[in-house]
Amino acid sequence: MVKPAKSFLTPEEKKRITDAIVRAEDNTSGEIRVHFENFCKGDVLDRAAALFAQLGMVKTRERNGVLFYIAIESHKLAIIGDAGINAKVSPLFWEGLKTGMLRHFKEGHYAQGLEEAIEAAGMELKKFFPWQQTDANELPDTISTTPDSTT
After folding, report:
1. What is the pLDDT of residues 54-97, one digit of tens each?
2. Domain that holds residue 124
3. Which residues lie below 8 Å from residue 71, measured CB to CB, with a gap of 6+?
4. Cα end-to-end distance, the chain, whole Å
5. Residues facing residue 77 across a β-bridge
6. Does a structural domain hold residue 22?
């Protein structure tokens, strides 16, 4: 039987990831989200894009949100950025983050792979979208999951 996606990480690992999101967002107006589900039957980028919209990530003021999407049982991963950040960052940057994450994932170090990629994304966001006094946290810093995911 497949474990629910929300149980994939330990509470300590979840805290490490949410702490990494908070640290990354401290220096940028960018927004970072992490989403887990068990299955992704179709194209991983299409699914990530649909979730990006469902999570309200297209509504950020500067269109500078980044989603880390992981389909656990399907062994699929996508990192997508909104129009604002994609206009500034090469697709090779996202591929590099993905490669680093996969290296950690193959060793079973999921939290470490995500933590490092989130911090790198935060540094890249900071270059183009530095924190301003008027910035507000536009999206939750929590990990989201698809309940009993069969998508």
Report:
1. 999 998 889 999 999 999 999 999 999 999 999 999 989 999 99
2. 10-131
3. 36, 37, 38, 39, 40, 44, 47, 77, 149
4. 16
5. 70
6. yes
Q: DSSP label at 150? A: -
- Give the phi and the psi of residue 15 in degrees, each rounded to 5: -65, -40
The answer to the question of residue 145 being in a domain is: no
> Domain total for the chain?
1
Block residue for tokens 């090469």? 90
Q: Is 66 helix (H, G, I), strand (E, B) or coil?
A: strand
DSSP three-state, residue 74: coil
Percent of the chain with pLDDT over 70: 96
Q: Would you say 92 and 120 are in contact if contact means Cβ atoms under 8 Å apart?
A: no
- The structure tokens listed for 8 are 């994939």
- Whole-angstrom Cα distance, residue 102 to residue 72? 12
CATH number for position 80: 3.10.310.50
